[in-house]
Structure formats: structure tokens, C-alpha cells
Amino acid sequence: MQPPTHLSDDAADWWQHVQNDFALEAHHIRLLTLACEAWDRGAQARAILDAQGLTYLDRFGAPKARPEVNVERDSRIAFARLLRELDLDVDGPTEPPRAPAIPSNRGKPHAS
Prior knowledge:
3 helices; 54% helix; 112 residues; mainly alpha
């Protein structure tokens, strides 16, 4: 299989590497493609931030975060979650470690 043509060269190379090294089913390929798209979107936002900075001045002269800050953050989160779903690690646990549950006080009698 060939990577989707809309991916950047970097993302397409990674897509091909993963495709060659792992036995992926159709749903995995969709997740891989989404992960590559998230990577590319984050890189696009990063390029704009590198060129124009993190903030701009609004009509009142107050500094505001550029929208690309949120795009980059959201793309990083999406990429990390999709990567976790793909579970490409060959060693170690397949489930991520989870924080211990905090016991709830609901339903317990109130102390008087």
C-alpha cells in the first residue's frame, strides 16, 4: 500500500514505515492516516507560530494567543491518542498505566 498523497513527505515516510513493519488491519490503517494528518496539522501550526509568534494584538492593543496555538495543542493530543490506540510498541504492557481510583464518598453516611 502507498500512503495517502495529501500527507507531507515526513508523515508519508512514517506511514510507509509503520505499514511495512506492522501487520495492520483496515481500521489500523485509518488510525495511522489520522495520526499522520494530526502530525501534519500540528507542523503547519508550528510553522505559522515560528514565523508570526505566539501572540497578536487585538483591536484594543491587548495581546491574544494566536489560534494556531490551539491547533498545535489539539493536534499533539490527537496524535498521542491515536498513537496509543495503534499500540505499536513491541515490548511492555499493551495498556497504558492508569492512576489509582479515588474512592467516592457518595452513599456513605455523614459523620455527626
